[in-house]
Input
Amino acid sequence: MRIIPLFALLAAAALHAQPAAPRTPAQQTAREVLKELIGINTDHDSGSTTVAAQAVARRLLAAGIPAADVQIVGPAGSKNHNVIARIHGTGGAGGAPARKPILLLAHLDVVTARAADWTIPPYTLTEKDGFLYGRGTSDVKQGAAILLAAFIQMKRDGIAPDRDVILALTAGEESGGDYVGVEWLLKNRRDLIDAEWCWNVDGGDPQLQRGKRIARVIQASEKVYATYQLEATAAGGHSSLPTRDNPVYRLARALGRLDAYDFPVHLSEVTRGALSAAARNEPADVAADLTNIIGPTPDAAAARRLSARSPFYNAQLRTTCVATMLEGGHAENALPQRARATVNCRILPEEAAGDFVLNTLTTVVADPQVKVTVAYGAVPSPASPLRPEILRPLEAVTATFWTGVPLVPQMETGATDGAYLRNGGIPTYGIATVFMDVDDIRAHGRDERIIAKEFDTGADYAFALLKAFAPKK
Ligand SMILES: [Zn+2]
Output
């Protein structure tokens, strides 16, 4: 057997290895920041976004942003503060006045990771097999790192934008109930984040499927969350002497009517765009239904078929309300005195104001002895208009990176901090920059990861987008 010297093997390996392209400055910074941010635990249980905010502030100061333009703010006593920074705009060409600022937004906090359930340590950035692993790699420290890198690069390159650019890396997005982030800033430090519009990277992920780039999503609206309670009561009594007036049956009949009911189809420019894009990837009969439903004479049968085909289509077409919890009765040998259901609704932004949903539920329940009340009220959040000022540069920059990838507007059926900003009068667009594999979404889950080379390209793409949204004088 011939012994091959080790150095010969190494030389052969080197020949076959892909020569690694040198990283651009934006990529280099984004990588360094991501490593640092993943290494700082910012979960709600034992973490602190203040520690991450301080790390971000050090980098901003080192890049030459004046201390007066870097603020760490949040409620007194909280370990979860926000970092806000600003690059001042100089106005447009030919002495045109500066436009209103744009706000770049990502959250620093993450959902708690149970290390025991992971195959690698969650709070350490690990690169393996072409992926970047760690809690927050997908939601949304990759976006925070990329926005910070673009912001720093704008400063380092001496680019004087035509408008102020504000960077806000925030707390309290994932925690639920601990409103120390965007909601707090709007109430207490609106001056720091007030902008013409917000570019939020926590939404609108560009999508890959089976290696193919299928969509450059722009999230322009969100459904509005609200919860209602249905309650029936009666005098009760001994279970050996049943009466017709049983709250369990009464509530069950009301829920049956709710189950059979569909809210009316109501489309917006955002959902029309989303359904029209979806038609491209569907078989002919489904595409025909999609085309019909967004057309001038929508057909109820087409809407029924689409709703039956996919919960996603159903949720795009209408407000939805669904029973999620039930309770009733108090003893196995007593007639129930009370029965109660929790109904969670995801309301189209155009239907969230006023009592439309409450009134509709009351009508559908159709029983004055089943009381319908609001358990958690809607915070209305209007859709953000799809303005050419945003779409044109987005389309142009996207085309220079990936030809033929369609721009697809989206109404999110979940919720992000964008809802508070829209509600506060700052139109918000979810435009994440790292392509995500739609069949490998691990946000909030175990072994969270993203594709390493998509992260690197996403950093360059974000810097190009920033220069397009806030061009130099
Ligand atoms: Zn998020």
